Structure prediction request, 573 residues.
Amino acid sequence: MRARRSVLALLLALALVATGCGGKGDKKASGGSTQNTSPAVDASDINKTPRDQVPDGGTLKWAIDNIPPNFNYNELDGTSSDNAAVIGGLLPGMFNFDASAQPSVNKDYLDSAELTAKDPKQVITYVINPKAKWSDGMPITEADFAAQWTATNGKKIDGKDSPYKISSSNGYEQIESVVKGKDEREVVVTFAQPYVDWKGLFSPLYPASMNSDPAAFNDGWKDKPQITAGPFKWDNIDRTQQTITVVRDDSWWGNRAKLDKIIYRKLDPDAHVDALANGEVDFVDIGPDVSKLNRSKSLAGVTIHRAGGPNFRHITMNSQSAVLQDVNVRKALALAIDRVTIARAQLSPLGVEPVPLNNHIFMRNQKGYKDNAGILSTADAEKAKSMLDAAGWKMEGPTRKKDGKELVIRFVIPTGVATSKLESELVQSMFTPIGAKVNIETVPIGDYFEKYITPGNFDYSVFSWIGTPFPISASKSIYVKPTTNSKGEVEVHQNYARIGSPEIDDLFNKATQEFDEAKAIDLGNQIDSMIWDEVHSLTLYQRPEIVATKANLANYGAFGFATARYEDIGFKP
Prediction:
């Protein structure tokens, strides 16, 4: 069993990266190691250790930023790195990925998964492992796959808007039918349109009891997971102590988990290293935080791990806020942001090359990367000033005004994230010379997404997207044009900038149907060019994956593209 990143949509994260797994390309890094460039995209560093050399027993203490508001990963509030960390050892996934992003069938859940037809329609046949069952004793069957498809495809039900509050319909919306094969353990999935990244579907898989009922889907898993099927099972949640505990599931049919339990503890990101130092947690994600790196390197018995991965920092601009509805204003302000300075401030002290990221789809160490930023590739404060003048924002004293209103950007960031604080302050200083004011509003980290980002209660914000082995299809829910349902409510999924176009949607549909890699990459770069044109968001830099762990922690660290075997994690003597 392995932990999985979202392969349907990019994970959002404040500081914690979703867990991944070791595979080929695994390499070691000492506590004092540094690198001048980002690790190779297939790099992984997890203190890889054979199972027979990992003793049974022990408790892994794991820091998370928030108690997940919903343990249904496919529900709008549930698609987060914190939730992925918790459910990674509890729920099924159909494929595992190594550090080179190469998939293999997860034999714990499937005997096979094959493309059984291409013409006239794409057909995938899954054969479920006969041992696979839910924690309530019910077998995992075709009914679970069919219910998940119905819940997440975003289509109308009985002529009405779907009642399921999903974060993404990527891949599921292309499916025409999910039916039983020769028996309930064989699942036949037929696609209305081809879908290249089908290996990312049904991961994680939830029981039909949740997906068959909109109320259960939306709210039934808010307090805790109701049913599991992994090497660990749910134990308890202590909302006073802000901890979640999962324990070894002895009814698990795969390799027996080495750990007795995992305790997830909610901590402000800036408190993680202190928690590592005093033994409250056994590892911390460092990311682009040099203070965390230096402090972690100074701790006895701690190892620093580095890996390559498809993760990046970015500024999202709310196109529906009063001052940002004009694309020329968004572009002018973006021109004033010196991304080289931001990258240098965050990455140089880490020993990582401080180069801005100029693509929303592909990372700099990924095949397909191309600079599509155009005019926004290089900061130009003078050009920004002239564009703001042309847009009607004229200098009146130290600040620009239009129709008597000051040009003020409300920059919302969460508490306890030093990276966000520094980045917002740098933008604030860069906007002063062009006559724009930035008011930085720090909000409780537990409210950040639910009360501010998701409902659009901000002008600017900055956080990380945690990528997947499928760069194009995973990005779709971030950039697809928001829709309005029959109640007049805007459904944004993960498009927090709240802007898009039919042309971008059409290119995404074409790209996810294109089996020719070169053609798909070309379509991906066409999409990225359009995203830059509408100034949807401003990519800052590729986020380094740097993790500090207790030196004796085995089979855990920096994973890159890969996913972690929860049952193999443990402590060396």
Summary: Confidence is low (pLDDT under 50) at residues 1-10, 12-37. The chain has two domains: 11-227+545-571, 311-542.
